[in-house]
Amino acid sequence: MLKIKTSSKTVNEDYVAVEAATGVSAISNRHIIGIIAVCVLSIILALPYGKLLPASQSPLLSIVSQKEKMDLNRQENYLTSNDQDVENEVEIAQTAGSEENYDDMEVPSSMFTSNEDSKAEIDSTNFKSNQGFFASKKSTLNQDNASSEVLRQRFEGINDSINIIGNNKTNNAIAKNDDPQAQKLGAIDKIKNLMAEKGINPEDSLIANILGTSSKPLNVNKRPKGQWYQQTVHKGDTLSQIFNYLNLPFTTLKKIENASAKKDLRLAQGQIIQFYIDKNNIVLEMVKPLDKDNQVRFTRNSADDKFTSVYEKTNAHIENPKSVAKFADATSMPLAKEKALERQKQEELLAKEKALMQARMEQEAKLAHEQELALEKQLAQSLKTRPRLVLGMIKSKESFDKAAKRAGLTKTEIATIKNSFSGKINFKRLTVGDSFRILTDGIGTRANITAMEIVSARNGRVTLYRNPSNRMFYEEGKYRPSAGAFKRFPIAGRIKVNSPFNPRRMHPIRHKIVPHWGVDFKVSVGTPVYAPSDGKVKFAGYMRGGGYVVILNHKGGYSTVYMHLSKFDVKKGQSVSMGQVIAKSGNTGYSTGAHLHYELHVNGRAIDPLKADLPSGNTATANSLRKQFDSTVAVLKSDLYKSSLAAR
User: Fold this and answer.
1) Counting C-beta atoms within 10 Å of the first and last residue's C-beta, which end of the chain has fewer, N or C?
2) Which residue spans within 108-252 are E strands per DSSP?
3) DSSP labels, 362-431
4) Which residues have C-beta within 8 Å of that of residue 209, sequence separation ≥ 6?
5) Which CATH entry fits the domain spanning 81-115+484-617: 3.40.50.720, 1.10.150.530, 3.30.70.980, 2.70.70.10?
6) Degrees (nearest 5) of the Cα angle 415, 417, 423?
7) What are the residue boundaries of the structural domains of the chain, listed by start?
8) Which of 3.40.50.11810, 1.20.1440.130, 3.40.50.150, 3.10.450.350 would CATH assign to domain 389-462?
């Protein structure tokens, strides 16, 4: 039972009945506090950090910064770990091979090379089906002709009966006749008499019934004189287009469509359509082929009549089939000539307008070309004295490329900047107010870029410095030189092997040799995977069997493969340094459990990662290169923010 308490206090009650006059809120204090907390948190997260407020005060950026510091610490621990100590503590499971993924995919050898990848018509089918349809209907047409003959015989019998109406003895004899045919004729006489009393011609009524139309039967003798024309169907023609081209009334086409069956008006290329036109340019008949032997004819007596469709043999509408060759071309119709003359006038007007427009466009293009040459000359003269520091800001309706070009950067320099910031800045999402500064080692466009910075509302401040030793760009504190070193394991901490390298592995289910070209490390999902040496990403994506896969190409013909990842933090074409986190382990693809499948290839041939001879490198040289880069950053950092270097 629900208890409702009427009170002026709201302490422990979930539901409170409050009198309107008391003014007490029906929401409890804890609910009010929760609503206020959500509002305050939403306001904090929505504040424009990086514009009105310092980016360092943003809680989201603080979380990202902490993650980056954690990754740097992990990389530092991975780089300072001693491979020999780790190798001595490697644990190979007693059940090695029982937990492995037996469906690891075999990576194509092409993946281990350092080369980059290279960069409403006429339905003739329906016409054929129509041919088959009408071929199957030949017997039906013959039966219809036979039925028509029987009807004519019956009409003759009716007329004979009319001549003897009034003779009761004869009528009684017919009525009492046991012959079935005679009985039918007697019934017809009765219907004939009734219809005659009402002024209805029974013969005309029966013909209308057979033809499926209420219009009067055709009287060929009263048909106005006219002339036959013919039109050939071309590719892409429709009946509507043909009528429009010949300037025939659209209402005539609609009447023909109303009298036609579903497939009667389907056109095929090469067909010849014939029109019978009277002296008033009225279409009285239209003949369209159905197949080689049959045609459909739409006919009427005058413009006020409806069309009637007649199915007949080809050329049955004319006495001499050879006269078809003498039919005039449909374009010679009076209405078609008027339409052709109108089209010619329109084409002449369009040609004149086109010529005027072409001349105007050529003049405008010439002026634009002259202005462009003048601007290029002025820009070239200006770029010769371009200062060491180039500053720029994106304006309204402006892309980064356009803003950079306006600031004085060349196409080659713009491409270098975009490639260097790849994976860090999305240049398509830069907005108005985002700025950049580019530092070079000399005056003019022949100087080399030594430092660059982009400040955006979305990504904050990202600064890159060029390393003199390899001419690549790195963020401050993120250069991890390996001096040719190659670490044995792509993961840190204690190593446990579930399945070792085995080119003669016997598959326990298939009972045949299925090589295992790598090593399976037992790790939990989300374990960081590190680059064991400097290299370049050859592939980063999804592969059937391997799940999420990353392939790195290293110097000296070395390549490494990482399978069944939960995610990867690199993309194809990106350069990586030893110790950089490239992915997280997972359980994707054809995997029986969380693990990392790791392969090592030398010149395209798979070798055992646990036994391979790897380059040891020189630790002293690596430390020297790192200190040299730190010193370079200190100098470039000072020059990057000297406003005096931006003055001409």
Assistant:
1) N
2) 226-232
3) HHHHHHHHHHHHHHHHHHHHHHTT--SEEEEE--TT--HHHHHHHHT--HHHHHHHHHHTTTT--GGG--
4) none
5) 2.70.70.10
6) 105
7) 1-46, 81-115+484-617, 124-211, 220-332, 333-383, 389-462
8) 3.10.450.350
Rounded to the nearest 10°, the torsion over CA 549, 553, 557, 559 is -20
CA contacts within 13 A on the Cβ side of 282: 17
What the block records as the tokens of 632 is: 């370079």
CA Rg value for the chain? 46
Angstrom CA distances, 583 to 81, 518, 596, stand at 19, 18, 11
The pTM assigned to this predicted structure is 0.42
Pick from 114, 208, 195: nearest CA to 161? 195
Q: Find the helix or strand (DSSP H, E) in which 645 lies.
A: none
How far is Cα 213 from Cα 228, in angstroms, rounded to an integer? 25
The DSSP output letter for 238 is -
Calpha distance 460→58 (Å, rounded): 11
> Which tokens sit at 485?
């070193």
Rounded Cα distance between 272 and 274, Å, is 7
Residue type, 541: G
Contacts of 287 (CB under 8 A, 6+ apart): 273, 274, 276, 295, 296, 297, 298, 317
d(CA 344, CA 323): 32
Separation between Cα atoms, residue 219 and residue 221, nearest integer Å? 5
Looking up tokens 């005039």, which residue turns up?
328
Task: Name the H helices within 507-605.
Answer: none
End-to-end CA separation in angstroms for the chain: 86
Chain-centroid distance of CA 422 in Å reads: 25
The Cα-based distances of 500 to 112, 583, 592, 610 in angstroms read: 22, 22, 16, 8
Tokens of 354: 């086109």
Per-block average pLDDT, block size 10, for the chain (648 residues)? 54 53 60 86 69 58 68 76 74 60 64 51 41 43 44 42 42 45 52 53 50 46 79 92 92 93 90 92 93 93 91 91 89 90 91 92 92 80 84 94 92 92 90 95 90 93 90 85 82 88 76 86 93 92 91 90 94 89 92 90 87 78 85 93 85
Q: Tokens 């499948």 sit at which residue?
A: 597
- In the DSSP assignment, the letter for residue 434 is -
**392-to-234, 403, 456, 639 alpha-carbon distances in Å:** 61, 7, 12, 16
